[in-house]
Give the backbone structure.
Amino acid sequence: MKNNNYAVTIFFRQLFITIKRFLLKPAMLILAIIMIAFSLLLRTAEETSDTSAVIAYYIADATKYEDEADSIREKIEAYEGYFTFVEYGSAEEIERLVLQSKLQYGYVIPSDIFSLTSNGEKKNLIVSYINEDSSLSYIADELVYAIIFPGISESMLSDYLFEESDIAEYLEENNISRKEVEETFMEYTKSSTFSIDYIPLSSLEEADELVIRKDSDIDEDDSPSFLTASVRGICALLINLAAVFGILDYYRVRNTYLRNHNRMALFSIAIPTIITSIVGYISIYISGSFTSIVGEINAMLIYCIILIAINFVLCKIIKGPVVFYSLLPFYILACMIFTPIFIDINRMMPSLRFLSYIFLPNYYLGIF
């Protein structure tokens, strides 16, 4: 009984000493500061870029031409990409907000734009308000026109079929409406082998992802946002490095312990891993990419268990720190390449996907 109490006392004393040793290390404090500072930096960058990602629009005379105005709204609301479209109540409000630099881009769209273009009017249809400091105005212009003007083809086709073509009487006799014709036309353009499907993209990165999705049938929902991937990727990498630093610390102090080397190795790896994972959890929350309490905790817990187990085995196989010191810079560099922190090379080069299993941060990003 006395021996059991002594063993328990030694266990907790060793655990307490290890925790205290790592908490007092400047490197742990620096690591925590880096993680939280990086999260705050990305959060600030996202917030400051919000105005540049908003495109304001106003549909003039919307109550007069309700059907066409609704059609314009449908096309705008169907857009999914970098920019966010927000409808305003008047052109004057948009102009004022752009002048105050609270908005970067604003567009006044006539509700009968499809009818106007069908009648041959082409110039000065859309009024644009652009902040002179905006660097993406040309992209916003192209995007607005790309969303609105495909609808002109539908309108012109229905006008021709109902007013000039030889089947105009047939359409009228069979009560076929313009809307049915336009919807059929849109379905045909998307299903026909010989058709052009226009997909507006906001960046070259989105274009690359689209090509890869077409080739490998990757679901768009699997693509994390830049903020989410960056914060989670950096946190996962730093937690991994904390586990490696635990191994190096174990090599440094192991000669001071005559017994319980396995327990000492386990504590040395587990304590910095857990401490850093807690900081990582806080960093993810600060960054705004936090999703759910249970999901985050489960993912972080599983990742920590994987790290502790693998690094414990490594420290038992590799008897000295030389190998870790030699390979660590290359490992960090490779993680930056093969872990989707800033870029996802697996999507660009699917043939190299098998290499991602070597780098542990991918396990955390794959768990969540």
